[in-house]
Design goal:
Keywords: Immunoglobulin domain, Repeat, Signal
Structural class: mainly beta
Organism: Accipiter nisus
InterPro entries: FN3_dom, FN3_sf, Ig-like_dom, Ig-like_dom_sf, Ig-like_fold, Ig_I-set, Ig_sub, Ig_sub2
Low-confidence stretches: 13-44, 53-57, 210-222, 767-787
Protein name: Myomesin 3
GO biological process, one term: sarcomere organization
Helix content: 10-25%
Mean pLDDT: 84
Shape: flat
Length: 787
């Protein structure tokens, strides 16, 4: 503003040039001010320059023009400066608003990216609890010990150190004592929410080796129950009960009693035919009436300190004795698909045992759930393991079972399927549910929107959904709009090459957009069309389907190309085979075995396994067996795979486990005599020797002690340095190779033992063993005495 006033003064001074005074005129002062502004020199210096000139400035002519130009230049300069300041203010304001918007938009409640974890430390050691948190804006952090806030100012100096750097939260506890064993938690909170993380710190106390316990934690770990014995395979028979039991080394703690059982990865629960219980260090699973569906891998899972422990075994369920000699085994795994108002599709798995002759087909039976009145669904045997069941009542609940048949007879019926209720699956699509007002809903039915339709429209998209050797299954879409009245459907067929359409179901109208046709001429092609009908009339026919050739036989899968057998234990063999080529996915595999010298194949599993490796238990030790595998699909069983090479059932040879229990037997100035215990697992053959390593605690690397294996479990290590501390480790060797390395031994100091010689034995008490006397010998100073 002062600059603009200066410009105004300059303009006024230019009009007062007629005054004649001895002193400086206003124009002179104005020119001095303008000079000071334009030339960036003090105004006093400009006035001094005018005094030295000693003359009055009278502006006229060229001087006035120059002054005006100078004023214009100053005005432009002032405008540029003002614009720049305004733009700067606007930019700063916009940046501030953008920053606030970004902060507001990026705001999020706290979340622990890496939570706290449990720590166990020895007394007088330090521990650091750390976690990573994500939050915007940065949250407030509070640490707690057993629910009480931690204030480092109230604790001893240096006891707690709390840091928060770039979302990394740490709590450092120095010189831990038994009182520091507690549950620690951290709370993070900002304006959008809060989060918590918890961890337990367990401080162990050393009591000394003579106490029998290495630490306080050992006492608690010693009472945590573990599996007493491994689970063994169980063999049962169809229609008979079985119990799978697991025993523990001690009583389960309260948190360990949440025992879970699984079959083939599926969680098992108590039911009418299954009981799970735990009592007296025994967890058991009892099935009152076994079926082949109960066969599989059973796993028991028990909680532990570091998660859970589990064991797995396989339960075999053999076929029940056939009523007719040579009859096949019963089918299994019945399932219902594509359930509609009056039909569904039933599938099952072929049995592993065909009774010695090929299976000719299957008979299907149904009953109303809760009754035992079984009604046959087919007159002729079905050749594949899939069949459409028609003529069901809407809203009724059914159960199904299947029997296999060969030339010798009919099998036992399969386990009944789970109850299934017929319904109209399109009802869900014709109802729109709109939620409102905290849990309330509005239902809008499509029937109310379509209005009254008398003569229905024809169906659309008529096609063959399944083509099997025994039947052709048709499917189509309902007319749109359908109308309020219920619809029935009539199916027509046409042999390709003729012009005669024939009504297929005149006596049995269809209520669902599904239908199956049987007894079609094999090898001929058919087209199909459908009419919809209601109480007002019948529609025009739909567009015909694509030609369908009846009688296409579903082929069985090829068997695995290669099956290998390996030794496992004295009663089991491990089998491995390749997956099927070209991406073929079977329902599973059946395994068969026979003893060499015999012709009768025995089924190993009666429920298909989906894996490519299986352990066959229950074999006779020392016997020689061969094995083969078959693939399973809806068409049945494949041919047998090539037989494996004969294999004798013997324990597999493997590398031994590590030796353990290293002790110091004698010590000199530069040598130590070390002893140890043999491996717990010898690998199925005798131990040929041991290799030792030594480690000086003053160095970083381990060094070999011997190059040739040591046949005994005692060895003297020489060339040691007196006063140094050493530790040792070892490996065992057998015919299979060198086993895993052991854990390092305790620390032994190399210093000569100088204990005094023992004195004469005294107060020896003879043992009485069945009237005979026992000779006690004591060696004292090289002399042997008998007592």
């Amino acid at each position: 503003m002062k600059l603009w006033n200066l410009v105004w003064i300059l303009l006024c001074a230019s009009a007062s040039g007629s005054e004649e005074e001895e002193t400086f005129s206003l124009s002179d002062l104005s020119i001095a001010s303008a000079l000071a502004l334009t030339s960036e020199i003090p105004q006093e210096a400009a006035i001094l320059e005018l005094e030295q000139r000693g003359q009055k400035r009278i502006l006229f002519g060229n001087d006035m023009e120059k002054l005006e130009e100078e004023v214009i230049r100053i005005c432009r300069l002032l405008r540029v400066r003002a614009d720049r300041r305004a733009l700067r203010r606007k930019a700063v304001e916009k940046a501030r608003a953008e920053k606030e918007y970004i902060e507001l938009r990026s705001g999020r409640p706290p979340m622990f990216w890496i939570p706290l974890r449990v720590h166990a430390v020895w007394e007088k050691m330090e521990v650091k609890l750390a976690c990573t948190v994500l939050a915007s804006p940065p949250p407030q952090v509070t640490w707690y010990k057993n629910g009480v806030r931690i204030d480092p100012r109230l604790a001893p100096a240096g006891k707690y150190k709390i840091k928060n750097k770039f979302g990394m939260l740490t709590l450092h506890i120095s010189r831990c004592s038994m009182e520091d064993s507690a549950e620690y938690s951290v709370e993070v909170k900002n304006q959008y929410g809060e989060a918590y993380s918890f961890a337990t710190v367990l401080v162990r106390k050393y009591y000394g080796m003579e106490s029998g316990f290495d630490s306080e934690i050992y006492r608690s770990e010693s009472i945590i129950a573990d599996f007493a014995f491994p689970l063994k395979p169980l063999f049962s028979r169809e229609k008979e009960p079985f119990t799978l039991s697991c025993y523990f080394s001690s009583d389960l703690l309260e948190h360990q009693r949440d025992i879970t059982w699984f079959r083939d990865g599926e969680l098992l629960q108590n039911s009418e035919c299954r009981e799970l219980k735990y009592q007296d260090r025994e967890a058991s699973l009892t099935v009152s009436c076994a079926y082949k569906e109960d066969e599989g891998f059973y796993t028991i899972r028990v909680p532990s300190l570091d998660g859970y422990k589990e064991q797995t075994t396989y339960v075999f369920v053999k076929d029940a004795a056939a009523e007719t000699a040579g009859a096949p085994g019963s089918p299994l795994n019945l399932k219902c698909h594509d359930v509609n108002k009056d039909c569904l599709i039933l599938s099952w798995v072929a049995p592993s045992d065909n009774g010695g002759s090929p299976i000719l087909g299957y008979y299907i039976e149904r009953c109303v759930a809760g009754s035992e009145d079984w009604v046959p669904c087919n007159d002729k045997p079905v050749k594949t393991c899939r069949y459409p069941v028609l003529g069901l009542a809407e809203g009724q609940t059914y159960q199904f079972r299947v029997k296999a048949v060969n030339k010798e007879g009919i099998s036992h019926p399969s386990k009944a399927s789970d109850p299934v209720t017929t319904y109209d699956p399109s009802n869900d699509k014709r109802v729109t549910v709109i939620p409102y007002d905290e849990g309330r809903t509005i239902e809008i039915f499509q029937d109310d929107l379509e209005g009254h339709i008398k003569i229905p429209l024809p169906p659309t998209n008529v096609h063959a959904s399944e083509v099997r050797e025994d039947y052709v299954a048709l499917a189509w879409d309902e007319p749109d709009p359908r109308g309020r009245e219920p619809l029935n459907y009539y199916v027509e067929k046409l042999i390709v090459g003729s012009n005669s359409w024939q009504m297929v179901n005149l006596d049995m109208p269809v209520n669902s957009p599904r239908f199956a046709l049987f007894d079609l001429v094999k090898g001929k092609s058919y087209c199909f069309r459908v009419r919809s009908a209601n109480k007002y009339g019948i529609s025009e026919p739909s567009l015909p389907s694509e030609p369908v050739t009846a009688g296409a036989k579903l082929a069985t899968l090829p068997p695995p190309s290669q099956v290998l057998a390996f030794r496992d234990t004295k009663t089991s063999v491990v089998l491995q085979w390749d997956k099927l080529e070209n991406g073929l996915e079977p329902l599973g595999y059946y395994i068969y075995c026979r003893e060499t010298g015999t012709e009768e194949w025995q089924t190993v599993n009666n429920k298909p396994v989906t894996c490519n490796e299986f352990t066959v238990p229950g074999l006779q030790p020392g016997k020689e067996y061969v094995f083969c595998v078959k693939s399973v699909n809806e068409a049945g069983l494949s041919e047998s795979s090539p037989e494996t090479n004969p294999i004798v059932v013997r324990p597999a040879i493997a590398c031994p486990s590590a030796p353990h229990g290293f002790v110091l037997l004698n010590c000199g100035k530069a040598d130590m005599t070390i002893g140890w215990k043999p491996p717990k697992r010898k690998g199925g053959t005798k131990i040929l020797g041991y290799f030792l390593d030594q480690h000086d605690t003053s160095e970083l690397d381990w060094h070999e002690v011997n190059i040739q294996p040591i046949p005994q479990r005692v060895y003297t290590v020489s060339n040691l340095e007196e006063g140094h501390v050493y530790e040792f480790r070892g490996r065992a060797m057998n015919m299979a190779g060198v086993g895993e390395v052991s854990e390092p031994s305790d620390l032994f100091k190399c210093e000569e033992w100088t204990m005094p010689e023992p004195g004469i034995s005294h107060r020896l008490i003879p043992e009485a063993t069945l009237g005979s006397t026992v000779v006690h010998r004591s060696r004292v100073r090289g002399m042997e005495t008998n007592k």
